[in-house]
């Protein structure tokens, strides 16, 4: 563990140094996340309170580790699960591609600004997160005071674990076709992912809910939209959609037990 920590510290130190010593001629480049943190370094976050939180080098490294560890695996695994469901449901792929053709056309690549107009893709991602939440038990929480909830007494300092995987597959919440990948269930529904609709909380809820929800959703939709817009996708070696193994591997994040393989064919006009 100590070795890993030292190695990680060297990587992070290099990232910070690279940002501190931008070569002349590149000074006008757009500021990124690390530039912003460095610009706030060693000054109180609240200028009217000298005891306020101060961002130092170590804290910048800690925040960066949080960002990297929270972001990569979760987004990559969600893309892989969504793609698996799409390969099992060619009809849904056709509909996403029809939406992309309507919004983007076939002569240019998808851009980030297109995402807000891709409403069917939004439903596809919600449905994928319902069935395949990356954090099936979210992150353990602790009650700050004694509380009674729906007739249950929860003492202060209880460890609370939310089984969102089970909520996502509960027929009383989602009706009988709960095991089916069916994005259309979100048509005319106001359910969103921000954490107030408790039947769909793959990013958690409340003050300790996921701070990366917007970056995560943008990344997932952008990657999926580009992959589906640019390419047709087939399963390898004549495999049929129903043959695709959907076994889960339970861990800190819930990934596919086996990697997904798919064969692309280019489909844009140029
Ligand atoms: C598909 C993408 C993602 C999913 C499904 C996801 C899911 C979650 C969940 C379930 C939690 C625990 C929330 C709770 O228990 O209430 C969480 C926490 C967290 N996530 Fe994400 N996340 C994603 C992307 C990201 C990204 C892109 C970042 C960073 C840029 C990030 C950073 C974090 C951090 C730092 C926490 C801990 C928050 C705290 O303890 O206060 N996540 N995430």
UniProtKB/TrEMBL annotation:
Positions contributing to heme binding: 210
Molecular function terms, GO-annotated: heme binding; iron ion binding; monooxygenase activity; oxidoreductase activity, acting on paired donors, with incorporation or reduction of molecular oxygen
SUPFAM superfamilies in the cross-refs: Cytochrome P450
Cofactor: heme
This protein's UniProt keywords: Heme, Iron, Membrane, Metal-binding, Monooxygenase, Oxidoreductase
Glycoprotein as UniProt keyword: no
Pfam family for this entry, one: p450
Compartment(s) of residence: Membrane
UniProt cross-references to InterPro entries, sorted A to Z: Cyt_P450, Cyt_P450_CS, Cyt_P450_E_grp-I, Cyt_P450_sf
Listed GO CC annotations: membrane
Principal subcellular localization: membrane
Family, as annotated: Belongs to the cytochrome P450 family.
PANTHER family registered for this protein in UniProt: CYTOCHROME P450, CYTOCHROME P450 93A3-LIKE
Name of the molecule in the record: Cytochrome P450
């Amino acid at each position: 563990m100590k070795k890993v920590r030292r190695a990680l510290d060297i990587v992070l130190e290099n990232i910070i140094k690279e940002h501190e010593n931008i070569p002349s001629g590149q000074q006008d480049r757009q500021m990124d996340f690390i530039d912003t943190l460095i610009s706030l370094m060693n000054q109180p976050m609240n200028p009217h309170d000298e005891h306020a939180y101060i961002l130092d080098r170590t804290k910048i490294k800690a925040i960066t580790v949080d960002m990297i560890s929270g972001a990569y695996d979760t987004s990559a695994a969600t893309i892989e699960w969504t793609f698996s469901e799409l390969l099992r449901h060619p009809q849904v792929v056709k509909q996403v591609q029809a939406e992309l053709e309507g919004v983007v056309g076939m002569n240019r690549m998808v851009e980030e600004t297109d995402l807000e107009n891709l409403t069917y893709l939004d439903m596809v991602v919600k449905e994928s997160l319902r069935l395949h939440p990356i954090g099936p038990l979210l992150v353990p929480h602790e009650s700050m005071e004694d509380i009674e909830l729906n007739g249950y007494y929860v003492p202060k300092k209880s460890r609370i674990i939310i089984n969102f995987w089970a909520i996502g597959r509960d027929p009383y919440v989602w009706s009988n076709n709960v095991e089916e990948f069916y994005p259309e269930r979100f048509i005319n529904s106001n359910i969103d992912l921000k954490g107030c609709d408790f039947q769909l909380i793959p990013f958690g809820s409340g003050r300790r809910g996921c701070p990366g929800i917007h970056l995560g959703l943008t990344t997932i939709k952008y990657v999926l939209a580009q992959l589906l817009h640019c390419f047709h996708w087939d399963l390898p070696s004549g495999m049929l959609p129903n043959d695709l193994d959907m076994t889960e591997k339970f861990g800190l994040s819930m990934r596919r037990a086996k990697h997904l393989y798919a064969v692309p064919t280019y489909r844009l006009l140029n």
